[in-house]
Amino acid sequence: MIVRDYRESDWPQVWAIVQQVVRAADTFPFDPAMTEAQARSIWLEAPPGRTVVAAEGDRVLGTAKMGANRGGPGAHISTASFMVAENERGHGVGSALCRDATGWAQLQGYAGMQFNAVVETNRGAVAVYERQGFQVLGTVPRAFEHPSLGRVGLHLMYREF
């Protein structure tokens, strides 16, 4: 598996992953009825941001997007989002994408990386981020409407470089 920059030919597979994750409505605060056009506009980052895929040959296993968390006086802090195909979870894809994003952010001169809305019940993602040096700074209680668990918290996670 390699992590590489997104290519336009990756879109059908990236869309399949985004659609799968968003429709499940259990880990991402995106509208489950999101259209393909809306997904493209949200997921594909324009420079200086970046979108990548984790791939094995021509098969896309996961994807990430990254860039500045905010503009202006907050532009020195980066952010990233990750999605992994359901059948590829637990095989190191998310960890590889997270390592790539933090490495990229450091090379770009960011002072840290912030995740704004990590669903607290997404234990796999929380564990990946904690192994990569992120910590939970706080949790907004009942901020995410989980399809089977009801309202659960959203973590704010951070790693300083």
List the helices and strands and how they pair.
Blueprint: E1 2-5, H1 11-24, H2 36-43, E2 50-56, E3 59-68, E4 77-84, H3 93-107, E5 112-119, H4 123-131, E6 135-146, E7 150-160
Parallel strand pairs: 4-5
Antiparallel strand pairs: 1-2, 2-3, 3-4, 5-7, 6-7
| Shape, principal axes of CA atoms | globular
CATH class: Alpha Beta
Q: Domains counted in the coordinates: how many?
A: 1
CATH architecture: 3-Layer(aba) Sandwich
Structural class: alpha+beta
Report the radius of gyration as a whole number of Å. Answer: 15 Å
- What is the helical fraction, as a range of percent? 25-40%
Major sheet summary line: 7 strands, mixed
Number of H- or I-type helical stretches: 4
The CATH topology corresponds to Aminopeptidase
As laid out across the biggest beta sheet, the strand order is 1-2-3-4-5-7-6
Mean pLDDT, rounded to whole units? 97
Strand content: 35-45%
**CATH homologous superfamily?**
Gcn5-related N-acetyltransferase (GNAT)
State the distance separating the first and last CA atoms: 26 Å
Overall strand count:
7
Return the string of H and E elements.
Answer: EHHEEEHEHEE
Low-confidence stretches: none
Question: What report would you give on this structure?
Answer:
The chain is an alpha+beta fold. It has a single domain, classed as Gcn5-related N-acetyltransferase (GNAT) (Aminopeptidase), CATH 3.40.630. Helix content is 29%, strand content 37%. The protein is built from four helices and seven strands. A seven-stranded mixed beta sheet has the order 1-2-3-4-5-7-6. Helix 1 crosses helix 2. The longest helix has 15 residues. It is globular. The mean pLDDT is 97.
